[in-house]
Recover the amino acids of this structure.
């Protein structure tokens, strides 16, 4: 693990110290956890399908019947 020095405001550090005491965990552990969360969410975000906006693929060529099952067709091995 790499040791670093950071400057934070007194109120921010006080909040981390208070939280660490109430959780029974070291302040440094909470700060590492916060940094990891920032890394995952901001530096390496994983895009969920829910975040993509729908796009039009054009007009419908053939209407699907209620008995059509596209899952079987998508899972067929076409190799």
């Amino acid at each position: 693990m790499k040791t670093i020095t950071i400057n934070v405001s007194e109120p921010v550090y006080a909040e981390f110290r208070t939280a660490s005491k109430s959780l029974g965990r070291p302040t440094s552990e909470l700060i590492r956890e916060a940094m990891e969360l920032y890394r995952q969410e901001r530096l390496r975000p994983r895009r969920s399908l829910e975040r993509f906006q729908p796009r039009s693929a054009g007009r419908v060529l053939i209407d699907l019947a209620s008995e059509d099952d596209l899952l079987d067709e998508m899972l067929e091995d076409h190799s």
Q: What stands out?
A: Residues 8-46 form one domain. The chain has three helices and no strands. The helical segments are 10-23, 27-43, 70-75. The radius of gyration is 25 Å.
